[in-house]
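Cross-check.
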Amino acid sequence: MSNKTEINLTGVKQSQTVWLVKVPKYLSHQWDKASEKGEVGKITIGKKQGKTEVSFRLNEELTTMGAVGEKDGSVLVPRDHPFTMQTVGGQTLAVYSQSDSGQSQLFLLSSLCVSCHLKHVF
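Predicted model, tokenized:
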């Protein structure tokens, strides 16, 4: 059974933006390898021909991934991951989380304006 929590972000620190990004599974595995207070990478926000471009650059120490089925083999994970940005206008988003112990939570966020996904480049 899940605990349901509603988070209302209306009017709270309006000068700050909350980003929820769908991340490819292989990239989340690399993030798990980072030290507790380590940096996993950097986000760059820029404009090209008047259009916002966002990309994520993985920390170089996290670019090596063990190859499946090989003892000492490794594969390099790409460092640069462009975002796909899409205006969606006023949708409600639910985020589901489940811990290793099986405890789950559901968070409801309102007023989603832009859908953001990291492109799968691996």
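The first helix runs from residue 25 to 32. Helices lie at 25-32. Passed to J.P. for a second look.
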